[in-house]
Specification:
With 148 residues, the protein is an alpha/beta fold. The protein contains three helices and seven strands; from the N terminus they run ββαβαββαββ. It has helices at residues 30-43, 83-91, 108-115; strands at residues 5-10, 13-18, 49-54, 97-101, 104-106, 118-121, 126-128. The strands form two sheets. It has a five-stranded mixed beta sheet with strand order 1-2-3-4-6, with helices on one face. Helix 1 packs parallel to helix 2. The protein starts with a strand and ends in a 20-residue tail after the last strand.
Length: 148
């Protein structure tokens, strides 16, 4: 079985590659794999920055609808830490995190990119969030309705 998030290094750059084909959905295990990779790189003095990228043809195309009930916004003992706390952990990383966006970054994928310190995208990248069709945008985490 493949790892859902693969860690590698290129010189002083730690690379986290989301490997959850076909669209790198935020299935259970993916957010936790991202955090585990960040924590690994934070302990490595040789790593100066972290890049988060999607393997294959897309960045992170949102949540896996079939698994949606397993990821909670606020978290609990049964389901894990919750998506908001994972995003907060990314924002509070001691090393800069860059989201390298290609393909699509939708819903939770866009929120994951927004939790990174920097974002770069290829010209053909597409980003979107379901709240944008309601003329709303994801709030800063300290004011988020996702807080449960």
């Amino acid at each position: 079985m493949n790892e859902l998030v693969i860690t590698s290094k290129d010189g002083e750059i730690g690379i986290l590659t989301v490997n959850n084909p076909p669209v790198n959905a935020l299935s259970p295990g993916v957010p936790e794999g991202i955090i585990a990779g960040i924590e690994t790189f934070e302990k490595d003095d040789a790593v100066k920055a972290i890049v988060l990228i999607g393997g294959g043809r897309t960045f992170i195309a949102g949540a896996d609808i079939r698994e949606f009930g397993k990821i909670t916004s606020g978290g609990d003992r049964k389901r894990g830490p919750g998506f908001v706390s994972i995003l907060e952990r990314m924002e509070n990383s001691s090393k800069p995190i860059v989201a390298a966006i290609h393909g699509t970054a939708l819903g939770g994928g866009l929120e994951t990119a927004m939790a990174c310190h920097y974002r770069v995208a290829v010209p053909s990248a597409q980003v979107g969030h379901q709240k944008s069709s309601l003329a709303l945008f994801p709030e800063p985490l300290e004011h988020s309705a996702y807080r449960g």
